[in-house]
């Protein structure tokens, strides 16, 4: 799979066929945010930005592989809540997964490793309680089951 780490969001948009410059609506926080990240390289975005791009279905062909790279180092990455980046994958439409089997396979492989406790968590990470850990793994199973059903 090709590496898009050093490509800007604007360059990703152009690769997807969008040639016009983004018009930012100051009344829309989402529009302002997306306008602000246009000149940033994918590798330089925060994990929360990657999660938001996925939830908004923006540039996901390029963003999901970046998310998996990041999740391999920290499967509970998130700004708003632990697991935010991982759980953003639940927002991706089934049609995308069907049309992009290589990415689907990459995500399933990671999820299976995570489910089988083959992925390391950050050294300083601790679950708040067993219920939080259980909820996390239930969500992992939910994503896995969804992808397997496609």
SS element count, helices: 8
Tally of individual domains: 1
Average pLDDT, all residues:
93
Distance between the termini: 21 Å
- How large is the share of residues in beta strands? under 5%
N-to-C series of helices and strands = HHHHHHHH
Radius of gyration, rounded? 16 Å
Q: What do you see in this structure?
A:
This protein is mainly alpha-helical and 150 residues long. It has one domain (9-149). Helix content is 55%, strand content 0%. The chain contains eight helices and no strands. The chain has helices spanning 9-15, 29-36, 47-55, 60-73, 84-87, 94-99, 101-115, 130-149. Helix 7 (101-115) runs antiparallel to helix 8 (130-149). The mean pLDDT is 93.
What order do the helices and strands come in, and which of them pair?
Layout: H1 9-15, H2 29-36, H3 47-55, H4 60-73, H5 84-87, H6 94-99, H7 101-115, H8 130-149
Provide keyphrases for this structure:
single chain; 150 residues; mainly alpha; 8 helices; 55% helix
Q: In a nutshell, what does this entry contain?
A:
The chain has 150 residues and is mostly helical. The protein has eight helices and no strands.
């Amino acid at each position: 799979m090709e590496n898009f780490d050093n490509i800007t969001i604007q360059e990703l948009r152009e690769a997807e066929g969008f040639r016009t410059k983004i018009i930012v609506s100051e009344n829309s926080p989402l529009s302002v945010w997306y306008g602000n990240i246009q000149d940033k390289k994918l590798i330089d975005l925060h994990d929360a930005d990657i999660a938001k791009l996925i939830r908004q279905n923006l540039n996901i062909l390029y963003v999901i592989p970046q998310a998996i790279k990041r999740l391999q180092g920290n499967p509970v990455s998130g700004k708003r809540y632990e697991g935010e980046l991982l759980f953003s994958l639940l927002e991706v439409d089934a049609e995308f997964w069907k049309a992009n089997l290589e990415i689907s396979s990459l995500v399933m492989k990671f999820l299976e490793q995570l489910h089988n406790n083959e992925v390391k968590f950050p050294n300083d990470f601790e679950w708040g309680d067993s219920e939080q850990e259980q909820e996390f793994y239930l969500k992992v199973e939910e994503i896995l089951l969804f992808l397997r059903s496609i």
